[in-house]
Amino acid sequence: MQLQDIGNLEDITLLVNTFYEKVQKDDLIGPIFNQKMIGRWPEHLEKMYRFWQTILLEEHTYSGSPFPPHKHLPVNQVHFDRWMELFTTTVDTLFTGKLAEEAKVRAANMAYMFHYKIEYFRNQEK
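^ Group III truncated hemoglobin, sequence as received from the core. Prediction below:
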């Protein structure tokens, strides 16, 4: 099967669902997500569809600030590395092309920024 690029909301939905299925089962980051998302996975997935649809397809369906809900998560660089590993593997398994590459770059930038901000707030609270 030849892979295609990310091109529509169905592709975004496939990416998000496949990625978060891996996250939920992951030994390292799964427990953190699963505890935080108890009873709220469908709501979170819907938000992620809109987020990636806005970023990759430039269809402005997401509004809000993605960082605040993550501010106090008990995570460090190892968790972000695993998140990126799962995300990159998911994208590479499902898609190829310009938007697939853009998704990985955007995710890496977000992981870097989230980690930086979480560490910053942690140090401010000491």
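The CA atoms of residues 24 and 33 lie 7 Å apart.
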